[in-house]
Amino acid sequence: MNRASRGGRLPAFDRDACERRNVVEQCFNKLRQWHDIATRYDKTTESYQAAIALATLLMRRDI
Exposed e or buried b for every residue in 6-39, given b needs 16+ CB within 10 A? Predict the structure, then answer.
């Protein structure tokens, strides 16, 4: 339990860490839009990883 919940001083806020965390969360949210990845239809680990790689490359192209 951090000190802020007990009425103490707030923990330090790291803006850079927060921004990086936000980018990762947005990436996962975009990956969830790919139905095959979200439901894990691929039977092998290799094809699942390839689908994620393809989806991230296509998302990167849209930026």
Answer: eeeeeeeeeeeeeeeeeeeeeeeeeeeebeebee
* pTM for the model: 0.52
Q: What is the pLDDT along the chain (63 residues), one digit of tens a residue?
A: 555 566 666 678 788 888 889 988 888 888 888 877 777 777 888 888 888 888 888 887 765
Token pair for residue 23?
Answer: 């980018």
Q: How far apart are CA 25 and CA 17, in angstroms?
A: 12
Q: CA 15, CA 19: separation in Å to the nearest integer?
A: 6
